[in-house]
Amino acid sequence: MDGAHSAALQLQQLPPTSSTSALSETSFSYKENLIGALLAIFGHLVVSIALNLQKYCHIRLAGSKDPRAYFKTKTWWLGLFLMLLGELGVFASYAFAPLSLIVPLSAVSVIASAIIGIIFIKEKWKPKDFLRRYILSFVGCGLAVVGTYLLVTFAPNSHEKMTGENVTKHLVSWPFLLYMLVEIILFCLLLYFYKEKNTNNIVVILLLVALLGSMTVVTVKAVAGMLVLSIQGNLQLDYPIFYVMFVCMVATAVYQAAFLSQASQMYDSSLIASVGYILSTTIAITAGAIFYLDFIGEDVLHICMFALGCLIAFLGVFLITRNRKKAIPFEPYISMDAMPDSYLHNRQLLFKRYSNSRNVPHHYLESL
Questions:
Q1: Where does the chain cross the membrane (predicted)?
Q2: What 3-state class would DSSP assign to 323?
């Protein structure tokens, strides 16, 4: 009887023990989420400060008689150091928090750039004109902060260790292979229209950037997670999947930068920032949800609130970037109307003389 009674007491003590371990695991996941979010916010904030420092250095040198090159100034090197520090913080954040939480937090850099631009503005405005000019930036910053708060609060809590076995298991899973097939087909179609049909629409270019960026963040999380585990003593660098992910990370980042450079030559930077943020964040969250199963086990309320946070952050970034000054296109000082009649008459004679000649290149005639 005593043995049966003691066994019954042990069985009654099991449920509280299991619930306590589940509670500690949940609190640990929230702690990791918080660490990752803080690292990402810190990284994006420092990167924004670094870019504005380097921009200030270029502007100051251009407006002065200082013969030094930009890379010989302390301000530019301070900006470079802060940029590397910020990128390191963003890279490390992927090892602690889900991809779906880290990616949308890039809105912090847009908020920081807007605030820095307002604080260090050089023109003097009356209070009424100042509020009227920057009302969209103020509203956008508020919406972006609210969206960021919802993202951090209702982000998924999937915290799977990035071991070589887990990364390989996700890589060969049929949902991700199907997603990769769809993405490759879509990427090839967009690249065909962009290269062969000369479709230079901003959505086409930034969709190419977003598709490459989704693979970049997926591989970054794998590489960062495996590096952190290796530093903690669980060596993961002897798995071939680590080097596969590393090569994919570098390759997609390089091609992504190339497409962004081409887009910046044709479109305004504010338009690229808003449209690119929306497309890249949406596709990256989708890739993370399929590859890392970020939203498995989450209830409908958390998913809906997370989606609402994304939409509010999207709207905030759009309002912030819409208020930026657009670059004034270059206009030549001398117009065709101001040219002498003799100059125009000579060009017409040259065109008539060479238009019937087969040895003159076509582009030369067009220049005439």
A1: 34-54, 75-96, 102-121, 133-152, 172-194, 201-229, 241-259, 271-293, 299-320
A2: coil
Please report whether residue 279 resides in a domain. Answer: yes
Report d(CA 256, CA 216) in Å as an integer.
Answer: 9
CA distances from 257 to 209, 223, 350 (A): 8, 20, 44
Q: Which residues contact 172 (CB under 8 A, 6 or more apart)?
A: none
Q: Is residue 230 part of a domain?
A: yes
Q: Are 210 and 283 in contact (CB under 8 A)?
A: yes
Separation between Cα atoms, residue 198 and residue 67, nearest integer Å: 42
Tokens of 204: 């086409």
Structural domain that includes position 243 = 160-293
Q: What are phi and psi of 69, to 5 degrees?
A: -75, 160
d(CA 263, CA 37): 30
| Residue 358 included in any domain | no
The model's pTM is 0.74
The arithmetic mean of pLDDT across residues 21-39, rounded, is 68
- pLDDT tens for each residue of 262-271: 888 888 877 8
> Which two tokens mark 322?
């819409």
Provide the terminal-to-terminal Cα distance of the chain, rounded to the nearest Å: 110
Q: Count of residues for the chain? A: 368
Q: How far apart are CA 219 and CA 226, in angstroms?
A: 11
Q: How many domains does the chain have?
A: 1
- Beta-carbon count within 10 A of 267 CB: 17
Among 73-87, 117-131, 233-247, the range scoring the smallest mean pLDDT is 117-131
Residues 114, 108: Cα–Cα separation, whole Å? 10
